[in-house]
Amino acid sequence: MPELREALAEAGFEDVRTYVQSGNVVLSTSRKPAETARTVERLISKRFGLDIAVVVRTRAELARVVKRNPLGKVAADPKRYQVSFLDGRLDAAATKRLEAAVAGDEQLVVDGREIYAWHDAGVARSKLWAALAGKGLGVTPTARNWTTVTTLLELADR
User: Fold this and answer.
1) Are the beta carbons of 62 and 91 closer than 8 angstroms?
2) Is residue 56 part of a domain?
3) Domain match, 24 and 73 both
4) Measured distance CA(153)–CA(158) in Å, rounded
5) SS3 content of the chain, % helix, strand, coil (to 5)
6) Which CATH number goes with the domain that contains 36?
7) pTM above 0.85, yes or no
8) pLDDT tens across 14-23, in order?
9) Co-location of 36 and 86 in the same domain
10) CB-CB contact of 141 with 89 (8 Å)
11) Is the pLDDT of residue 110 over 80?
């Protein structure tokens, strides 16, 4: 992550901070989110030789995700409460496939470019999690547990 922070700073991004080792970055820029995503994807490809899809949210968008928190009353363990951030909206067929994968006490809320998912028994054997993490959504997803989501918002507020 130090190398990623350095590369982003060299590319003109400001206030670059990272959180844990899974590509969570908070930064300042005047660029639009789509341009930021493309720039970071190219930078990662050129500097590290990795083809990684980048999904960007503004601080305001992330704050709305946290405020919305539609499963907060049932999601007792933040490590089992996931938000999938998408680079576009799901179509109706993909939404129905996800809804069909919900089992047991799992819960799912699709809201614009975010998917909130409560995995009561964890993600390891969850068919819902497999569907969320798979390639069949038609959009690029990246998921974070609730602790990471709220910590990223705190980082953005510093």
Assistant:
1) no
2) no
3) no
4) 9
5) 40, 20, 40
6) 3.30.70.1280
7) yes
8) 999 999 877 8
9) no
10) no
11) yes
